[in-house]
Write the structure tokens for this entry.
Amino acid sequence: KDTVLQEFDIDEDGIHEIEVELGHLYVEIKDSKYRVIDVDCPDKICEEVGWVNKGSEKLIVCLPNNIVLVQA
């Protein structure tokens, strides 16, 4: 929907919660990489993507929640 919900510093380790259409999505940032560790949706495919390294063009997408995680 072309809306930025939240921004995170990829160089600061932590776990962040994002409110999404079906509940919550949790993003873990560690060692300048990130991944989805838990999400409220029926398929959880975004959890299976795994780690995305800093500078990577790889995206994490959760279609049921209309969320795309990207690096700016």
